[in-house]
Amino acid sequence: MKHLKHSQIAHLDRLLEDRNRELRQEIHALLLESDEAHHRDLAGMVSDIGDESIANMLTDLDAAFIDRHVHELHAVEDARQRLAAGIYGVCARCGQGIGYERLAAYPTAIRCFACEAQHEKTYAHEGTPTL
Ligand SMILES: [Zn+2]
Prior knowledge:
This protein is mainly alpha-helical and 131 residues long. It is 63% helix and 0% strand.
């Protein structure tokens, strides 16, 4: 991530942190609204668990209504790990640095713009909400 300035990295880090918190709050609210006692128990854990991965904890949860949030939370947690490891913002396909503008718009992006376009052409059915 040599192509990113310190100030840019700090900004992206904050974006990810904010999104992480928002998603936890949304997941917490969704679980609380659930009719299942098991889900409401999980809601308490989601708010108590601190900064550890709750995406992993919820992955096995058989609840379509929360799936999209958990999926995104996973992506956010992965991005924060890459940031901490100093390998953030590098395209998974071509290895080039992903532009700051793209990362600011999609902090969880794992491919540069060109590779993402190619990927979407190849896997057109992915990433399209089925609802
Ligand atoms: Zn690329």
